[in-house]
Specification:
globular
């Protein structure tokens, strides 16, 4: 098993940006985007951020709500964002929003959009129930071909990491609903807008930590999962798990930041690096002082030689 100690990459200078960073994603050469989902426990707004390796700067774009995900699009300076209960296009230059779809979780209350993924057919994303106790949050497919929002499930608690793999012509959605402490797979038919029977791929119920954000390894044989640890620990972890053998193949540690939220692989100076976000969400002031790197972004080495696919979202006409 490979083991890596991550370096502190960026510590936001505001409490708002350290509260709940997630969703790092490549955005051109030497840059990546990430979202600050919520600017504090009593806040209902967040931001989209762009970090630039060239000068170590971070630019913040305030949003009109709490973003669960944000991905670059084929339209210049425009992102697709899951915001509260709607999916919008956001122009970074003007801040203007263009609605793609709404009606997310319109059958229930107290949920907002959470993690998602972009793929060549559109978006797959889920929502979270804000007390983390009720199985009422949704899992959705936004199908670009006909611009339809399709409900896949309505029984999630806190929908998080997602990935798609194809084996022998069958497309499988890999999904995390964090409180279940499992990673599951569903056969998915994008054209029909349906899921098949659920299969548990990885089970972490014996552990005290929760699987959160997730990406595929470049060869598609495994996943890298960021684990959210609500307990006191010297470091947070992300782990690489083989989907066939279920073995742990690599581990990355984030010192003094146990609440690790999301991973992403990026190329920097010809090498493949892993970027990890961490959060201070739910931490008392005393615990934030104890875990003083919480809310920071980290970077670690890998043994990968190529990147996984990280598609931009196609806006179309």
């Amino acid at each position: 098993m490979q083991e890596y100690e991550c370096e502190l990459l960026f510590r936001p200078d505001s409490d708002a940006l350290r509260f709940l960073p997630e969703g790092p994603y490549p955005y051109g050469a030497n840059r990546f985007s990430w979202v600050a989902i919520q600017h504090g426990s009593d806040q209902e707004r967040g931001s989209l951020n762009v970090y630039d390796f060239a000068d170590g700067s971070n630019k913040t774009f305030e949003l009109q709500g709490r973003p669960g995900f944000a991905f670059p699009t084929d339209r210049q300076d425009t992102f697709v964002v899951g915001l509260e209960r709607r999916v919008v296009l956001v122009d970074l230059n003007t801040g203007d929003e263009t609605l793609l779809c709404d009606g997310v979780d319109n059958h229930v209350e107290n949920t907002i959009i959470n993690d998602g993924m972009a793929f060549d057919g559109g978006l797959i994303f889920g929502s979270k129930e804000l007390t983390f106790s009720k199985t009422i949050a949704g899992l959705y497919l936004y199908r670009s071909a006909d611009r339809q929002l399709i409900t896949l499930r309505t029984d999630q608690i806190c929908s998080n990491g997602k990935a798609l793999v194809e084996r022998n012509g069958q497309l499988t959605l890999i999904d995390i609903d964090s409180p279940t402490k499992t990673v599951v797979g569903y056969p998915i038919d994008v054209e029909a807008g349906t899921l098949g029977e659920k299969q548990v791929l990885l089970d972490f119920t014996a552990e005290e930590i929760f699987p959160d954000g997730m990406i595929l390894t470049p060869d598609g044989t495994g996943v890298i999962i960021a684990f959210y640890n609500p307990n006191d620990a010297d470091y947070g972890v992300a782990r690489q798990h083989n989907l066939e053998t279920r073995k742990t193949e690599a581990i990355w540690r984030t010192a003094k930041a146990p609440q690790c939220t999301c991973p992403q692989l990026l190329e920097l100076d010809g090498a493949i690096k892993l970027v990890l976000t961490t959060a201070v969400e739910h931490m008392t002031t005393e615990r934030q002082q104890q875990h003083s790197n919480s809310g920071s972004l980290f970077i670690g080495d890998t043994n990968f030689s190529i990147l996984p696919e990280t598609p931009t979202f196609t806006v179309g006409n």
